[in-house]
Amino acid sequence: MKFSIKLVLSTMIVLALALGFSGFYFVNYVFETSLxxxxxxxxxxSSILGFAFETAALNVPLKYSVLPDSVVEEIASRLEMxxxxxxxxxxxxxxxxxxxxxxxxxxxDEGLLPQTxxxxxxxxVIYAQDDYYVHTCVSINALDRILYLETxxxxxxxxxxxxxxxxxxxxxxxxxxxxxxxxxxxxxxxxTKPIRLLTKATKRMAAGxxxxxxxxxxxxxxxQLTRDFNRMANALEENICMLEEEIEARExxxxxxxxxxxxPLTAIIGYADMLRSHKMDEEKSIMSANYIYTEGKxxxxxxxxxxxxxxxxxxxxDLQETSVGELFEYLREMFAEKREMDIRFRHxxxxxxxxxxxxxxxxxxxxxxxxxxxxxxxxxxxxGSRTVxxxxxxxxxxxxxxxxxxxxxxxxxxxxxxxxxxPEAEQHKIVKAFxxxxxxxxxxxxxxxxxxxxxxxxxxIHHSELQIESKEGEGSCFSFILPxxxxxxxxx
Length: 492
What we know:
This protein is α+β, with helices and mostly antiparallel strands. The protein folds into 3 domains: 3-177, Beta-Lactamase, CATH 3.30.450; 194-253; 315-378 and 397-487, Histidine kinase-like ATPase, C-terminal domain (Heat Shock Protein 90), CATH 3.30.565.10. The chain is built from 10 helices and 15 strands. A hairpin with a 3-residue loop joins strand 13 (467-471) and strand 14 (475-482). Helix 1 crosses helix 2 (69-81), helix 4 (193-206) packs parallel to helix 5 and helix 6 packs parallel to helix 10 (451-461). Residues 377-394, 436-448 and 486-492 have low confidence and may be disordered.
């Protein structure tokens, strides 16, 4: 059963119970009030008749010392015919409660007489001959006789009005319930519309449409539920996109890895087969062995880099306070023998919180890449000079600048070269494993496209990231920001 139908039915049940109890109470209250009024009138009329009987008894001639029964009957007959309608229903009994006079149509039994004495009035409501009556009984004192006067007053109209009231209220209740049902169906449809929209969105998402969102049409709890559902859908879509990207990246990684393995393995197998199956002079044998050694070292370097990347992804950095000067001193010693490059170091002294060995790996990789990007091929050696920041024209090819300076966010270390640069469309891809902008040039330098991927993973565990600024033909600048402590100034 639909929720809207349940809502309508439950509302109708509550409304029916409310109308039923309130209607019964109201009609019954009116009935009891009217009946109480008629009972009071009947008792008052009975008292008036008793007083009239006593007055009439006083007018009896004095020759009677005791009021005879015949006179009682005569007075009762006169009282019966003295009503507005020309006839009252009454009955008179003597001291012994024996019946002396009864009006025609007085059908009440004698059950009320035993309950009445000289000092009490009694009454009851009875049903006789398809009518309802108020049966009263009072005592009267007439010439030293105690008589009992009973009357019957019709209250059928009160009971008829009650029946009509219940009948009318039932009709009104039915009309109100039908009208309320129509109104509640409309209200329930409006109230449950957000649920229907959420159900539709759920089905669409279950069918694979993760971009579909539920439309918010209210600002109540259901509106909040819709907002929460859409936020959940956004998070789910992001996670799915991330999973798809990760799967795609893994497929690309496996393809690139297989390709990178294929090239050196082909050379190794080919030259090994030549050494095995052919007799060659010493020079060719040395050349073949050299190719095998070179490609083997390339495979070894690639495996070490992959292992470093895997370890970096799983590792938590043990950050310690480290002097920037110590890092730059290590770099100067590391690249002191690289005479073909002009590597310039400049930094402000500071203490940063890093794992020194990992950051040294990042810097060595960045400088090594800058050196490879700055080495000219034959065609590039004929290229023109570039303009440096101070406006003087000079050939900056072969110059590598490694700088460190304090910034508001922390401490920024940058490695700049003036080499071949990176096309803008390629810049967001170069941190992927095995990705190389110029594959032939990278392989000629024994590269496999893993250095920047390793740098990105190491910086990630330092809560930093690699920032790339590059323009094709003008060089590149790779930088990152580290958390900083006490600052000073140092320049070489």
